[in-house]
């Protein structure tokens, strides 16, 4: 019974992992903290079958505080489930912009693609019309410069534009095709998400990209279709008008020989007849996207360098941020030079949905104090970079390492690792987590020479009769099927390896 209870303890990690999954899914922050303090390796747990980790569940449900907790525990931010989806992809799919903001600040990889259809986080955000998630995902590609929109419209190739930002990298990210050649603009146009279509076009999405025959995506319209074909299939008139105003061709034919007008007729979108007809002469003027945000890159860089979640109490002599009245000012807006804390500036850039301001280029956001157009933020001189922590040890490693340099123990009980070795406690995740110590083996006692396979020249810590009974037990086990070899050395080796597996086999 003692042996069965010992083996049963190895399944405790699975039970704790399920508890952490439930806490991440339900948003129970205190439960998640307690479980991670007990065993930080639980952050790497994943469910059977779908392979979703606690990070996936918390991201899909929008619990950004638990997402931050898991990331600070050292979990891999780009973990994949059985479909190849990361936490960023699931957050974009369900529109949880606060989770997306947290993952972007922790430098999540936005280029990972789904195994089944090749879609990225940008594709999933465009598919469901989550414009805020889209602009946060592209924060590292949209520079905080006043002439950003003019550079994209002119498509200039001079040295000045190249030095200001990498236009080619932004173009590749925006127009990256999934399986079947479908881009994010195709997906947004098909589902009638006007704001997403407008944002993608303002960021340089091509209205002339066409689908291909290869790929796993089922295409009911036909290969060679443009985003206007997909907008005609979806039936949203405003999406069609915006695409036409941005240069989409009314006469483009796909592999079936269908124009966008013919696609609309086949799907009985009669209200698009006049819009998609060449008889229409006048085109509406399209304003810049209300979700375009120029200062986002600047504040994201400051947040990564200096932190963004300060909880320290302010001295009475320090003026707090005028927005939250809780944290000290760390950044200033270029132009009006009004000061804010980093967290309020991030919130302002992430939630803004205003297309025009009193003074500022398209994409600038209005200052909450003077309505001046903010293009970028700069950190104050008093704002210091955060101290980089020592790189954490991989969570897949054991938390107890054995070293032979310590003094020998004279205890009659054998430690929960190799005998005659002392256990060095390590804390790879910082002092905030509970230090894990090596527990002692509850019942088994044996000679030190069994594990090390050394001749019995040293005095045994176990009485002679106990040593003989242990040898007889090993001999019976080898004859009954535990090991087919009749060698006593092999029996001892199996026992040693079993002891090591018990010590390290509970890792998640």
Automatic annotation (TrEMBL):
One of its GO terms (molecular function) is zinc ion binding. Residues 321-371 form the RING-type domain. The keyword Glycoprotein does not apply. ANK repeats lie at residues 50-82, 83-115, 180-212, 223-255. Pathway: Protein modification; protein ubiquitination. SUPFAM superfamilies: Ankyrin repeat, RING/U-box. It comes from the Eukaryota. Its EC number is 2.3.2.27. The keyword Repeat applies. Pfam families: Ank_2, RING_XB3-XBAT31. It is an enzyme of class 2 (transferase). It catalyses: S-ubiquitinyl-[E2 ubiquitin-conjugating enzyme]-L-cysteine + [acceptor protein]-L-lysine = [E2 ubiquitin-conjugating enzyme]-L-cysteine + N(6)-ubiquitinyl-[acceptor protein]-L-lysine. Keywords: ANK repeat, Metal-binding, Repeat, Transferase, Ubl conjugation pathway, Zinc, Zinc-finger. InterPro entries: Ankyrin-SOCS_Box, Ankyrin_rpt, Ankyrin_rpt-contain_sf, RING_XB3-like, Znf_RING, Znf_RING_CS. This is RING-type E3 ubiquitin transferase. It comes from Ilex paraguariensis.
